[in-house]
Amino acid sequence: MKRILSFDIESTTGNHRDGSMCTFGYCLIDGNLDICHQEDIVMKPKTKRYETRIKLHYEKAFIKQQEQFPAFYEKVKALFNGNDYIIGFSILNDVEFLNNACEVYGLEKIEYDFLDVQLLYKTVYKKQTLSGLSVIAEELGIDYKAHRSDEDARVTFLVLKHIVDDLKTTLKEVLRKYHITLGSNKNGEITPCTNGELSKREINYLILKFVEKNYKHSRRYKGGLSFKTFAFTEELRYGDVDKFRRILKRIYELNGRVSAIESSNVFVNTYSDGELPEKYVNSINIRNKDKERIKVISYEEFMEMIKELPEIDFSSDGELLRAHRNEVKKNREKKRLEQRKQKILEMQNKRKNEKEEK
Questions:
Q1: Per residue in 50-94, pLDDT tens?
Q2: How many angstroms separate the first and last alpha carbons of the chain?
Q3: Residue 168 needs a FRET pair 20 to 30 A away by CA distance; which of 25, 73, 301, 355 works?
Q4: What is the DSSP string of 298-327?
Q5: Is the pLDDT assigned to residue 204 strictly greater than 60?
Q6: CB 174 within 8 Å of CB 135
Q7: How far apart are CA 287 and CA 294, in angstroms?
């Protein structure tokens, strides 16, 4: 486990647009999953309003006696440097509070990627809804003082530690396994932390980027699978993208190729009962119409040919997916803008024609 910053923010109004941040609490966690420092920074908010529905840990009089955020800005900013993970619970609110504090005082916004532990907990344990921190703390038997920022930060980390320990793996592997993409607060835009199964489009994107990187650069020697071009079922491609990519790597190492049924000479049947769906049978029959051009083998026979699968680090998947999703989002917005412009142009032409007819 690498170094982690867990942080939480409290506000005097609950509004992240009025400069009401009054506490910045945090915990710094070292590589051994030990909290090496915990602190609650209390500050006087920009706004004079105190309308929060939540009972703050500190009295109003004490908060009003503190210095304002600019006095702590450099210290807070430095906390975000040198950490491998920035975490929080329902963290988007905290990201917005910190951005707003920077904005109202004319300070440069702090840029970072972040993980929402609330979303991670829901995803890993298949919860139907997002649970509050106090509810999860009670489930896990963790005692803490609610709504004190540094305590919320501490418990947030303990929830994360429970997940990692429970799954007996690393945080990096947890994020990859459950398709968690880190959120981002950069370039004036907040991109939320996301989860969920990968779409076929996203799986194909990961495979495409993998092929681009490995096709020409991973062959150890010529021979082995020379002159063999393999085709696989969608069950393997979309059911286990990690295994599929490991298979691709091994085939390339042995100088083989991978393609569609129409241009392959070996088809690997990955169905455990051996029964192929009709669409594969039809494609194979078309390919073998005049003579046998493609041979069908079982997955076990295929593994005998390649002997082993290489170990591969897929930790870059999160960054690739985030970049891909941002690109898809931008293209979608661009298309909508173009369609809107087209509609406006059509309306203007229609009005012009109607006016000329009159």
A1: 776 667 888 888 999 999 999 999 999 999 998 899 999 999 999
A2: 75
A3: 25
A4: EHHHHHHHH--------TTHHHHHHHHHHH
A5: yes
A6: no
A7: 7
Please give the CATH number for the structural domain made up of 4-191: 3.30.420.10
Angle at 80 between CA 168 and CA 195, to 5 degrees: 45
Same fold, 4-191 and 200-306: no
pLDDT at position 1 over 80: no
CA 258 to chain centre: 29
What residue segments make up the domains of the chain, in order of their start? Answer: 4-191, 200-306
| 28 neighbors 36 (Cβ within 8 angstroms) | yes
Domain 200-306 has CATH 3.30.70: no
Length of the chain: 358
Whole-model pTM?
A: 0.70
Starting from the edge strand earliest in sequence, which strands make up the sheet with 85-88, in order?
Answer: 35-42, 21-29, 4-11, 85-88, 112-116, 183-186, 189-191
For 153, phi then psi, to 5°, come to -65, -40
